[in-house]
Design goal:
Residues 230-355 form the Integral membrane bound transporter domain. The protein has 477 residues and is an all-alpha fold. Helix content is 76%, strand content 0%. It has 18 helices and no strands.
């Protein structure tokens, strides 16, 4: 399974590293006489990586509700360089007042999560405008030297958007061509965007079984509290390493799908970040400050992390924090003497994020799994009772595929908990089993759409009733 995921994500991994390298070289060429060249290159690398990663998520299963490609490109080229102006200005604030600068950077990052409540278009726009601010969050303060104006930040962002979009488009197009060649049917219509499609589901106020607070509101609240607590604690304990507190809190809390998902990914990211920081700090002792070989090593680490990201997020966390450690060493701010302080900042920042998501208006992962399974069951009824001769009937297949993918996204934390507890936690075990059965149901529904049969339909109907009973029992627990 890991090898299959590795092969599936290899194209985008390679594309992301190439886009980052091209952005780095292009920005360095144009800004070679500017004292901000390091800051601009870092910003460009982060934006390019984020652009390709965004295309990978959109191209994969569960990436429904996408904007048309040309709209996405227009939004990228118009929005990201504009926002990068503000990001560059806030980067200078970080240099003079780190706590205030990080707090101001956190505002648009939280807003990018909150606007998800307005549907998939706003979700995409929020993701786009967050890229420059993430770059500002990652850039070390030592790289924010005075010299060039903020307009250079917009130019660097424009270059990164260009390379990231081109490489992402190339890989996406190649994948689409191979997929179309394998699945082409003369009479297959375009995918529908109906009631049960992910686009419609994205506009729902919540996935947590309650109308009191939308899931996007809860995620924004978790991120806001995490960033605020990380800034306050970092400013009090280790003000020289405040950036590590804030960056870790953001990484752990971003993209969560419920309390269990946050804890699971948080542990992965903490372990990965810790290992990456230790390894890169020790590696950094081999290079003197300003040695360009450290930059080469940085890109090698990013490349390995990008390829292995599909296997486990811990690899990407290790590569990102390891690369950042090498960058600090390159700027003369590294060494083994600060390793303990960095690790403490990473640990505390991650624990803050996990605590905020677990205890403050938590989104229960079990409720998210129930909601997404119910969506798949609704689609299953349409598949089994729909008119198979209708032209729109084959279009149910991609909807089923995406609904199954959304359920599969929830599987890792429940599978891990089932393994480490030997299945002794009944609700976690039953939810993991529910997710596995839902994935099998989705595959069966796709087979039925492609080749209907009375026997398969009877089996799927029985499974629909069985899963519905499981959902009811989980609701009563």
């Amino acid at each position: 399974m890991s090898l299959a995921r590795l092969r599936a994500g290899a194209g985008f991994a390679v594309a992301s590293v190439i886009a980052a390298l091209l952005s780095f070289w292009t920005i360095a060429y144009f800004a070679r006489n500017q004292t901000l060249v390091i800051q601009l290159c870092i910003s460009g690398v982060i934006i390019a990586l984020s652009i390709v990663r965004s295309d990978e998520r959109s191209a994969g299963p569960g990436g429904g509700g996408r904007m048309p490609q040309w709209v996405t490109w227009v939004a990228r080229f118009a929005l990201i360089p504009l926002v990068a102006l503000l990001g560059s200005a806030l980067g200078h604030v970080v240099r003079s007042d780190a706590a205030l600068g990080f707090a101001l950077i956190g505002v648009p990052l939280v807003a990018a999560i909150w606007v998800r409540r307005f549907g998939p278009v706003w979700t995409r726009l929020g993701s786009l405008w967050s890229f420059p601010f993430i770059a500002s969050l990652v850039t070390p303060a030592a790289a924010l030297a005075a010299g060039a104006g903020v307009w250079w930040g917009a130019l660097a962002a424009l270059i990164a958007v260009g390379w990231g979009s081109i490489l992402g488009w190339l890989v996406t197009s190649a994948g689409r061509l191979s997929r179309d060649a394998a699945e082409w049917r003369p009479d297959a219509p375009a995918p529908a965007n109906g009631l049960h499609s992910p686009a419609a589901q994205a506009s729902r106020p919540a996935e947590n079984g309650t109308r009191k607070l939308a899931a996007s509101d809860r995620m924004a609240l978790h991120l806001a509290i995490s960033l605020a607590a990380a800034i306050l604690l970092g400013w009090w304990l280790l003000p020289d390493h405040l950036g590590w507190f804030v960056l870790t809190a953001y990484i752990v809390n971003s993209g969560n799908r419920g309390r269990g998902d946050v804890v699971y990914k948080g542990v992965q990211r903490l372990i990965g970040a810790g290992v990456g920081t230790v390894a890169a700090t020790l590696l950094g002792t081999l290079y003197a400050p300003g040695d360009s070989t450290a930059i080469v090593a940085l890109f090698v680490i990013l490349g390995v992390g990008a390829v292995l990201r599909t296997v486990s997020y811990a690899w990407w966390a290790a590569s990102m924090t390891g690369g950042l450690s090498l960058l600090y060493d390159f700027l003369g701010q590294g060494g083994t003497d600060v390793l303990g302080q960095r690790l403490l900042a990473i640990l505390l920042g991650g624990l803050i994020a996990i605590a905020a998501s677990s205890f403050i208006a938590p989104v229960r992962s079990i409720d998210v799994a129930r909601r997404r399974t119910a969506d798949l069951l609704g689609l299953g009824r349409e598949v089994l009772t729909g008119e198979r001769s209708a032209p729109s009937y084959p279009a149910l297949a991609p909807e089923v595929r995406e609904a199954s993918a959304r359920i599969a996204q929830l599987a890792p934390p429940f599978h891990a908990l089932r393994i480490v507890t030997f299945g002794r936690i009944a609700r976690a075990r039953r939810t993991a089993d529910l997710i596995d059965r839902a994935a099998a149901l989705g595959a069966g529904l796709e087979r039925f759409i492609a080749a209907p049969s009375r026997e398969l339909g009877a089996d799927l109907g029985g499974e629909l009733r069985g899963l519905r009973e499981v959902l009811v029992s989980l609701r009563r627990d």
